[in-house]
Amino acid sequence: MTTPLHKRPEAEIKRLISALEPFSTPLELTSDESLHWEYQGRQQFYIIKSGELSVLREADGLVITTVDGQSLFGVAENLHPLRKHILRAETDCLLLRLDASLGHELICTAGLWQDMAAILAYHTAFLLYRDTQVVGQRTYSVIRSLLLEMNNLILDHRLRVSVLEYIQERTLLSRSSILNVVSALKTRGYIEITRGSYLLQVICLPERL
Predict the structure, then answer these.
(1) Which residues contact 129 (CB under 8 A, 6 or more apart)?
(2) Which of 154, 156, 155, 151 is nearest to 167 (CA)?
(3) Strands across the sheet with 52-57, in order?
(4) For FRET with 171, which of 74, 103, 111, 149 sits at 20 to 30 Å CA-CA?
(5) Cα separation, 61 vs 55, whole angstroms
(6) Please, which residues bridge with residue 99 across strands?
(7) Strand 25-29 relative to strand 93-99: parallel, antiparallel, unpaired?
């Protein structure tokens, strides 16, 4: 059994945003709009104030994670630039943009690197947790994990993206592989899905199918 991921370090995130927000520039994104880590040639920190944003692998569009609520991105990319990922708005979003060099200075001045370390540690733990769910697992196990993940979203979120799209964007599994498993689960009464393949609820998922 996989150890559940710990909760986000909300208090640390709030302290960092409070320190950075007064020096940041508002930025609005519309749904499906993409964002890179640089602005006018300078590395950026991005603060999500409202809306839903995904981190994608640029080469193939694989969704690494989707975040809603206040969050801070760009620190790891600034410290160790990879230029391999982009941000994509899933809904209309309100963000704040801040030059990373100024962000580092503000964090040092406010003595908030311990809070930053907590956020980076959480991000690392999330990536390790995600790998245990999808890397080297059987197709059904991967789909099962993502259905459970979807079930934890509020209904409004679940009704915005189909089961097929949600799973395919996060795994790159074939359409037929996903639909075969989802169809079997629906037929056997393990999940409830609307017409159009939107998840209403997970009733109970067996360990094996």
Answers:
(1) 2, 3, 5
(2) 151
(3) 34-35, 85-89, 52-57, 63-68
(4) 74
(5) 9
(6) 44
(7) antiparallel
Cα angle at 206 between 65 and 140, to 5 degrees? 50
Q: Is residue 135 predicted with pLDDT exceeding 90?
A: no
Q: Rounded to 5 degrees, what are φ and ψ at 61?
A: 75, 10
Q: Quick: pLDDT tens for 195-209.
A: 889 999 999 999 988
Question: Is the per-residue pLDDT at 76 higher than 90?
Answer: no
- Torsion over CA: 185, 188, 193, 195 (sign): positive
Q: What is the pLDDT of residues 27-41, one digit of tens each?
A: 999 999 999 999 999
What is the distance between the alpha carbons of residues 94 and 110, in angstroms, rounded to a whole number? 25
Pick 10-133's CATH classification: 3.40.640.10, 2.60.120.10, 2.60.40.10, 3.90.1280.20. Answer: 2.60.120.10
Query: Using 50, 70 and 90 to split pLDDT, how confident is the model at 85?
Result: very high
Q: With 60 as the cut, is the pLDDT of residue 147 above it?
A: yes
Q: What is the full DSSP assignment across 140-209?
A: HHHHHHHHHHHHTS-HHHHTTS-HHHHHHHHH---HHHHHHHHHHHHHTTSEEE-TTS-EEEE----S--
pTM summary value: 0.87
90 near 45, Cβ under 8 Å?
A: no
